[in-house]
Every structure is written in C-alpha cells, then in structure tokens.
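Q&A log
Question type: sequence-to-structure
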Amino acid sequence: MVNVDAAFDEEEGCGSVGAVIRDSTRGVLVAAHSFVPHLIDAPMAKAYALKEGLMLAQHIGCNRLIIQLDCMEIVDIMKDFQDIMNERYELGFQGCSRERAGV
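Response status: OK
Response body:
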C-alpha cells in the first residue's frame, strides 16, 4: 500500500509532499518526502505526492500497488488513466481520510 499526502502554503505557492509504502500488515517498508517550491494549488501538491509515491515504489521494485490519497479529484483523474498505468503497474486507487492515510 502506498499512502501519499501533501501540504500546500497558498501564500508562498509552495509545499511539501510525502509517501509511505507499507506491507500487508501496515508495517512501514520505506518513506520519502520532499519540498516543492512552485505549486498552484492543493490538488497539484497531491499530484506531486502521487508522483513521489510512484517513483518510490519503482525505486524499490514494487509494481502491485494500492494507492491511498485524500484528494478525490486526483483519485478520479487517475482512475480514468488506470488502463494505461496498468501496462506497467497493477494499481488500485482509494480515496481516504487524512487520518486514515497515516502519512
């Protein structure tokens, strides 16, 4: 499972993103975070977090993923592209509350 989240500072137009990959017992396998200096809005920050999570999964060789994030706008967009993504990964997308994501 890949949990991703982001924080967006509207005044500064920047933010931070993070991703955590967990095993089937919800134990942490690996995590990453980064600062993003130029963002337009919170959904863009969430999209960067998703990118971070996918890159992290690729780095450790995971290609069967359930991705959780708390931005339904991004979840819906990614579900539209799931067929294309499934050529490389076996993916499932889930919207979840910030508290449940545990990032």
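Response note: The chain is about 35% helix and 35% strand.
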